[in-house]
């Protein structure tokens, strides 16, 4: 049974001219999601630890850094010093995933792994018990505003079945193409952590209302 849905707004689709105000709008969320892109692992550039450090005094939310980068090992300490609480990495970005997960945890941070749409769950067999979250990408990473790839939904279901069967204390997150319809689909598949950017920051409704709507999906799931 899902205890509750956690929501993490991605500032990738926020107004970068006024990030301080944008972060204030999502104070009712559970985490703040930072998409870090190096222009190599994904075809886009975003920002680095300096932006996280600059925003840290203006939000009470824990920050998570989603490292869509090559050689993520070199970014762990800089993001820790910037005030990030959790780091998520991609298996393809490193030669030694288990060692990297241990490095993240040894630094005092929570560790998570993000899986691209075509990356199988078997990639995290060894490290799954060490993770606080697995982030299932329902778009190919690099850009916001994409449509959810529904062919990934069975992967969410399979991961939920394994986590439940093995009693693993790990959140299942989904990132990509989230709106009111797709959010309900991924929660029904087993997700309990939702990352959303465009849907939260570029919605006609206030971000706080959108976040509340997403969290209500958890209550509906429990009711089922």
UniProtKB/TrEMBL annotation:
PROSITE patterns for this protein: RIBUL_P_3_EPIMER_1
Record InterPro entries: Aldolase_TIM, Ribul_P_3_epim, Ribul_P_3_epim-like, RibuloseP-bd_barrel
Pathway where this protein functions: Carbohydrate degradation
UniProt keyword terms in alphabetical order: Carbohydrate metabolism, Cobalt, Isomerase, Manganese, Metal-binding, Zinc
Binding residue positions for substrate: 10, 66, 142-145, 175-177, 197-198
One example of a Gene Ontology biological process annotation: pentose-phosphate shunt
Catalytic residues in the record: 35 (proton acceptor), 175 (proton donor)
Cofactor annotation: Co(2+); Zn(2+); Fe(2+); a divalent metal cation
Catalytic activity, EC: 5.1.3.1
SUPFAM superfamilies tied to this protein: Ribulose-phoshate binding barrel
Chain segments annotated as transmembrane: none
GO cellular component entries: cytoplasm
Catalytic activity: D-ribulose 5-phosphate = D-xylulose 5-phosphate
UniProt-recorded Gene Ontology molecular function terms: D-ribulose-phosphate 3-epimerase activity; metal ion binding
Cofactor binding mode and count: Binds 1 divalent metal cation per subunit.
Binding site for a divalent metal cation: 33, 35, 66, 175
Family note: Belongs to the ribulose-phosphate 3-epimerase family.
Role summary: Catalyzes the reversible epimerization of D-ribulose 5-phosphate to D-xylulose 5-phosphate.
PANTHER family, A to Z: RIBULOSE-5-PHOSPHATE-3-EPIMERASE
Name listed for the protein in its UniProt record: Ribulose-phosphate 3-epimerase
Upper classification of the organism: Bacteria, Bacillati, Bacillota, Capillibacterium
């Amino acid at each position: 049974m899902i205890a509750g849905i956690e929501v993490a707004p991605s500032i990738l689709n926020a107004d970068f001219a006024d990030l301080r105000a944008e972060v204030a709008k999502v104070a009712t969320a559970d985490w703040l999601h930072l998409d870090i892109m190096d222009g190599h692992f994904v075809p886009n550039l975003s920002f680095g630890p300096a932006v996280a450090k600059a925003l840290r005094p203006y939000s009470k939310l824990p920050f998570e850094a989603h490292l869509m980068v090559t050689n993520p090992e070199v970014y762990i300490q800089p993001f820790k010093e910037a005030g990030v609480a959790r780091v998520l990495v991609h298996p393809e970005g490193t030669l030694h995933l288990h060692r990297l997960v241990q490095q993240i945890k040894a630094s005092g941070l929570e560790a998570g792994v993000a899986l691209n749409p075509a990356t199988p769950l078997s990639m995290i067999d060894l490290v799954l018990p060490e993770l606080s979250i697995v982030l299932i990408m329902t778009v190919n990473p690099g850009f916001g505003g994409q449509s959810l790839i529904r062919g990934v939904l069975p992967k969410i279901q399979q991961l939920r079945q394994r986590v439940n069967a093995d009693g693993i204390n790990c959140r299942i997150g989904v990132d990509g193409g989230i709106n009111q319809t797709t959010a309900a689909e991924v929660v029904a598949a087993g997700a309990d952590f939702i990352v959303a950017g465009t849907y939260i920051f570029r919605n006609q409704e206030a971000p706080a209302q959108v976040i509340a709507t997403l969290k209500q999906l958890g209550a509906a799931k429990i009711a089922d």
